Amino acid sequence: GRGIFATLPIxxxxxxxxxxxxxxxxxxxxxHIQKSCLSHYTYNWPTxxxxxKVQTGQAIVLGLGSMFNHSTSxxxxxxxxxxxxxxxxxxxxxxxxxxxxxCISYGAHLWFEDTDKDGNMDEGDGEDVLSNIRI
Length: 135
What we know:
This protein is mainly beta.
């Protein structure tokens, strides 16, 4: 697999990456992205539907943002959407040592077995847990 590893010590609060995003239309996501492995690399993103109502859509994250692996118990990177700027900002949640893998939480709805799940995830879309992470 792929992942991101620290090559230098990273202090708490350090911006690790500002990744641009490519928001997807609701229909584009349903008709194309969800039918491909690309769906494993998208993030929830507020997206207006054809009537202008904001739905939970998807966005493709470019740059390092698509390379973070998931960890429930060892998450050391948090992320925050900048809707207007069309970017996601990734920051260190704690001090990260050289050689340590940088991991985010993908939320509660995973397409794989979460081997380190500790039972603290909400049963919704993961937004409750993600919104409690302060970066």
